[in-house]
Amino acid sequence: MSAPVRVLVADDQALLRGSFRVLIETAPDLVTVGEAGTGAQAVELAARERPDVVLMDVRMPEMDGIEATRRICATPGAAQVLILTTFDLDEYVYAGLRAGASGFLLKNTPPADLLSAIRVVAAGEALLAPSVTRRLIAEFAGRPGPARPPARELDGVTDREREVLILIARGLSNAEIAAHLNLSAATVKTHVGHLLAKLAARDRAQLVIVAYETGLVRPAAR
């Protein structure tokens, strides 16, 4: 049997941390390796425990979840980070994705969906399918951010890869992209792999950031 997915829970509310821990440990393929009540503790524990996934709250004392995510993801071989948000209140989702997070969860996510999300992210995928994710990315992507690094220019990306990148940014899965472009799933997977390599992106979430920051995709009109 494969080793269980190791999860670090970071939230400033002890009750929520405990609830997440109990839930995670009901799954035979998941295990918690620590709890952090501040962003600084999350960074410290991530370095020490080397989890596969970090559930990261945004609003925490000492250091917020965005900065903690940035520091964790800057480490080679770092954990995948899932940002926890309250949706209507949080305006930090896009900042979290830019910092290196692989996606986000709403705090009222059903328990089974949370466990599934942890598995998805641990496998190297990104949580970009739900329509709410698309809406949030579109809303926050147009906000000013830091300059793009040269490695994220699109000069080396082929026309077909640009088409795939646009559809990724719109939240389509590989299967949906294949159907849209009349390609095989294997071909789409190859294009995604080329995009990840050419754009120095960790996962699909980072490809979405590139698509918006380069202007290839524009936020939807509201």
TrEMBL record:
<protein>
    <submittedName>
        <fullName>DNA-binding NarL/FixJ family response regulator</fullName>
    </submittedName>
</protein>
<keyword id="KW-0804">Transcription</keyword>
<dbReference type="GO" id="GO:0000160">
    <property type="term" value="P:phosphorelay signal transduction system"/>
</dbReference>
<dbReference type="GO" id="GO:0006355">
    <property type="term" value="P:regulation of DNA-templated transcription"/>
</dbReference>
<dbReference type="InterPro" id="IPR058245">
    <property type="entry name" value="NreC/VraR/RcsB-like_REC"/>
</dbReference>
<dbReference type="Pfam" id="PF00072">
    <property type="entry name" value="Response_reg"/>
</dbReference>
<dbReference type="InterPro" id="IPR039420">
    <property type="entry name" value="WalR-like"/>
</dbReference>
<dbReference type="GO" id="GO:0003677">
    <property type="term" value="F:DNA binding"/>
</dbReference>
<dbReference type="InterPro" id="IPR016032">
    <property type="entry name" value="Sig_transdc_resp-reg_C-effctor"/>
</dbReference>
<feature type="domain" description="Response regulatory">
    <location>
        <begin position="6"/>
        <end position="122"/>
    </location>
</feature>
<dbReference type="InterPro" id="IPR001789">
    <property type="entry name" value="Sig_transdc_resp-reg_receiver"/>
</dbReference>
<keyword id="KW-0597">Phosphoprotein</keyword>
<dbReference type="InterPro" id="IPR000792">
    <property type="entry name" value="Tscrpt_reg_LuxR_C"/>
</dbReference>
<feature type="domain" description="HTH luxR-type">
    <location>
        <begin position="150"/>
        <end position="215"/>
    </location>
</feature>
<keyword id="KW-0805">Transcription regulation</keyword>
<feature type="modified residue" description="4-aspartylphosphate">
    <location>
        <position position="57"/>
    </location>
</feature>
<dbReference type="Pfam" id="PF00196">
    <property type="entry name" value="GerE"/>
</dbReference>
<keyword id="KW-0238">DNA-binding</keyword>
<dbReference type="InterPro" id="IPR011006">
    <property type="entry name" value="CheY-like_superfamily"/>
</dbReference>
